[in-house]
Amino acid sequence: MTTNQISNRWTPIKTMKKSFYTCQGGSVQVAREQFPLVMAEAITIHKSQGRSESKIVIDVRNPSKIKNHMDRQKWYVALSRARSLNGLYILGAFKPPNEIKPDDDVNAEMNRLRQNPLVPKYQFLRVVPENVIQIVSHNTQSIRKHITTIVSDQVFSSSHIVTLQESWAIDNESYNIPDFEEISRNRLMGRPRAFGTMNFCKLNIEARIVDRIEIEKGNSNNHVEISGFKLDNRLTIINVYNNPSSSLELLKETLLEVKDYIDESENILILGDFNHELKLGNQLESFMLGTFGTSLFSRRESTTNTRTVIDGVFGRIDDYNVEVFIYESYASHHKPLVIRVHEL
């Protein structure tokens, strides 16, 4: 039906007039009059792959052109171009594709995947066996910045103890890790900087903590921080952060103060970021053996993105078996070390 020779199926579009100044604070004004239209595209489903649009129109009104061609895969590509259901329009009748047959390739592949599931490399670290204490040691390069990464990591949350280096934590700030309690930290006053260690343990472990250790030495440019605690008077855990600019002598001097907190007969783990290469025959390892009677438990493998071996675990253990694994981090330059202490 037409009115004045214009079909009633047509949509009237009126011109719009807008005025604006040529520059901010200017006095010259420009008036623009135009039809409120934007360009639209008509493309094939194949060409639309990889795109996302706020509004999509799928035209299936011409059966002769799409006969036997609108299969499940094409419908998926076409429908998934729209960012939301509100922006999806279908011209013509939507006819759902045929159901997937039992012998379809997709079904066969899904069955194969169910029978041969992908096992993540570090899945075993998420399930801690009984009679094992799992400890994570990590230079997190700022707990202030990466707390959400720590909280969401299943290896961290499955562990009993989390020890962090280069925390950037200042004295008046607290950091919540669900199901964990902060045990000790180095106290940094003033603005945040690359400084300090922090120690957290699971709530059911906290009652077994009998002593706490906090030591700092140096100045703003060259400094060493140590914190730690005793567990059941059977195991002392010492967490070390050595600033990259600090000398080996300052590190040794600070570590010597730890001797005041431990007995020569007790089990001890000294872990953290030592910022000295732990290659075979290194001076730090000789010092640790002579001073504490400890051996290097961690492997001489890269613990940073620049392939240095500066994060490690030393130990003197008589009552436990100890395993050390190198884990992965996507927030820090350093890789976490996961220590499993097996009670004998």
Automatic annotation (TrEMBL):
State the InterPro entries in the record. Endo/exonu/phosph_ase_sf, P-loop_NTPase, PIF1_helicase
- Domain of life per record: Eukaryota
Q: Which CDD domains match?
A: SF1_C_RecD
Q: What is this protein called?
A: Uncharacterized protein
